[in-house]
Automatic annotation (TrEMBL):
Residues 467-501 are annotated as: Disordered. The keyword Isomerase does not apply. This is Photolyase/cryptochrome alpha/beta domain-containing protein. Binds 1 FAD per subunit. Belongs to the DNA photolyase class-1 family.
Amino acid sequence: MKQFKGLRAARMPHRTIHLFRKGLRLHDHPALLAALESSEVVYPVYILDRKFMTSVMHIGALRWHFLLQSLEDLQKNLCRLGSHLLVIQGEYEPVLRDHVQKWNITQVTLDAEMEPFYKEMEANIRCLGEELGFEVLSVVGHSLYDTKRRCRPPDLDLAECYRVPLPADLKIPPESISPWRGGETEGLQRLEQHLADQGWVASFTKPRTIPNSLLPSTTGLSPYFSMGCVSVRTFFYRLSNIYAQAKHHSLPPVSLQGQLLWREFFYTVASATPNFTKMAGNPICLQISWYEDAERLHKWKTAQTGFPWIDAIMTQLRQEGWIHHLARHAAACFLTRGDLWISWEEGMKVFEELLLDADYSINAGNWMWLSASAFFHQYTRIFCPVRFGKRTDPEGQYIRKYLPVLKNFPSKYIYEPWTASEEEQKQAGCIIGKDYPFPMVDHKEASNHNLQLMKHVREEQYRTAQLTRDDTDDPMEMKLKRDHSEENVTKAKTARMTEQT
C-alpha cells in the first residue's frame, strides 16, 4: 500500500477537462478545486448537448435564457482569472472522445449528481475513460478550497471557438422579460442582500410569506441553487452564523434553514426511489386513474381557466419563470385533486419547462405532495381558487398586474368577474366569455366530486393493503392481536364466573 501511494505521489500532474453540468459557479466548488489542485492545465468545458437535455427534461425559453446567462456569467468570471469557459455543442460522448484525444486529457472532473440521467452520463464517461485511458473524478457539490494555486489556462485562441452561444444560435426567442438574471454574480448579490438583514433572516417563517405580493416575499434564490450558481452549503453555514448571534430565531421546518432541509429531504427520497418522477412503478406514489383531457390541461397551462387567481399565477410563471411556493400549491391543487383531476405528472412537466428553479427531486416531490399522491394525506384540504388569493391581496393588485384585461374591475369582482353585471363588465372594458373566459368548472361541484374520488381511491388502497398484508412482518401488529386475544380470554373468564355466582 505504501509503495502504491508513492507511485501516486510521483505521478505527473494531470491534463484535465473540468466538465460543468449544474455547478455553474466558482465559489465553493469541490470538483473544480480538485481539478485545480491535481492538474497542470485545466480546460473548463460545458457540453451543450441539446439532444440529451431535451430527452431527459422539459426546458422552456425562460429557463434556456437563464442557463445561457449563467454560462455567460461563468465565462466572464473565468476570464477575470485569466481562463475561459469552452462551450462545445454536440452529443457529450463523441464531444468528449474527440477533445480528450485532441488535448491529451488524462483526467475528467465533474460534480456528482443524483438524477438517474446524470448518473448514467457519469457511468458512460467512466466507460469512455477506461477505453481512452483517462481518470474520472466526481465530487459532491450540489447538495448539503485553497484557491491560491494557479493552473495554466487553455490557450487564448480557444475562447472564440468555444464561446457561449447567443439565444439566436439555439433558435430561442431573443428577449427574456424575467426579472431573474442567470449567473453566480447575480446570485451572490441576492444572497448578500438578504443576509444583510439579519433580523429578517432570524425571524423568517415560510407560512407568513405572501404568495401574491408584487415582489418576492422569500429570498428568490431558488433558481441559483437549482442551476448551481450559488452553493446551498454556503447559504446554510452563513445562516448558522446569523442564528448563533441571534437571541431568538425561527426553527425548521419553517425557517430558512428549514427550507434547505426540505430540499435535502426530497433529494434523499428521490435518490432512493425508482421512477420518482412517474406514478407507474413508483412505490411511494398512490396509483390514481386521473382524467386525460388535453383541452383542459392546455387551458390551465395557458392561463385560460377563467379563475383570475389561477390564471395570474400561470401568467407570472410563463413570463418570469418563478412563482411563490403557495401560488405553486394553488395551481397544482387546481389541476389535480382540487378541480380538474388531471395527473400531477402533466403539471410537473409544465413546471419543469417553465420554472427557472425546476429541480428533478423538488418538482416531482411537491407535485406528489400537492396532489396527495405521496407525503401529504389530508386530502380534504383543498385550495379555493377564489378565497385563497383574497386573504392576502383583497384588492387584487397581483391579478391586475398579470391579467391587465381585468384591471378595471372593482375589487369585489376582481377574483370573480363573472359575477359582475353586464353593465359593470362594459364599464370595466372586459366582457366575460369574450375578452376573458368563464370559469371552466364549478369549483364547489368539481372539488366535492374529486373529494369523493380521492376517498374511494384511498379506501381501495387500504383494502388492498389489508388483503396483501402479512402480520408476521409487523411485530407491533402481532402484539396488538395478542393483547386483544388475551383481553377477550379474560372477559370470557369473568363472564363465566359471573354466571356461576
